[in-house]
Amino acid sequence: MTLFERTSRALLLTQSGIELLAYFRMMGDAANNISVAATGQSEAVTGHVLISATNLMATYFLPPVLKNLRKTAPDLQIEIIASNELSDLRRREADIAIRHSRPKDEALFAKRLKGTTAHLFASKQYLDEVGRPKTLTDLEKLKFVGFDEPALRLGLMASRGLNLTTANFNFSTSSTTVALELVRQGFGIGIFPIEMGAAYPELENPFPGFEPISIETWLVAHRELRTNLRIRLVFDLLAEGIG
C-alpha cells in the first residue's frame, strides 16, 4: 500500500494514506476517552488536578479561591496553566478550564459563573501629562496599550463610538499582566476588568462615559471527570469561590 507520492517539492499523502491517518486519529481519540473514563472512577481526594485559565484569571482571581481549596484538601497537587489559548479537555491538556465563552462540545460540562465588566484604565501620571479627555474625540487622540492583535478589536471599540486605528497602539502584548504593568507605567490606556483596575490606586478611568465590555466566565470540565471526587471537589470550590 502506497502512503505517499513524491513530487518535485514534497511528499503528498495518497488516498490510502489519508484514510489511514483518519483511522489513527480516531484511535487516538478513543484512547483519550478511555483515559478520561478511567480517571473519572477515582474516588481519592489526593493526586494531581490541572486547571487552565487565562493569564488574567490565573493571576488575579484564582489565588484567593485556591487558599480555601488548600485548607479543604491539603493533599491535592494543583497545577495551573496560565494561557490565553484554549486547553483541549478531551486530550487531557487540563482537567478543569476557566473560559470566557460557553463551550460547544457536548462532551464537556459547563457552569456559568459570575461575570464582570471591562473598563478603560490609565495611570494618573499619564493623564496628568496628556490631559483628561472630555469627549470621545479627545479620547481618540490618546495612546492605548494593545492586547494580542489590536486591529482585531477596533470594531469592538467602534461599536461603542470610539474610532481608533492601529496608530493608537504603540505597544501591544499577549499578556494581560504585561499590559497592566505598561499601563501602570504610563504607556497609555488599557482595558481591564473593573476589579483589576480598582486594585491599583494609581489608575483611574479616563472616560467613564465609555460603555463597559461584558465578560462571561464559564467553569468547564469533561463530563466523565464529574464522577471523580477530587475533580468534583475542585470544580465545586472554584464555582463557589468565583461566584
TrEMBL record:
Belongs to the LysR transcriptional regulatory family. It holds the Pfam family LysR_substrate. The lineage of its organism: Bacteria, Pseudomonadati, Pseudomonadota, Alphaproteobacteria, Rhodobacterales. Residues 45-240 form the LysR substrate-binding domain. Gene3D superfamilies: 3.40.190.290. One of its GO terms (molecular function) is sequence-specific DNA binding. It comes from Roseovarius tolerans. InterPro entries: LysR-type_TF_proteobact-type (IPR058163), LysR_subst-bd (IPR005119). One of its GO terms (biological process) is DNA-templated transcription. SUPFAM superfamilies: Periplasmic binding protein-like II. This is Transcriptional regulator, LysR family. Signal peptide: none annotated.
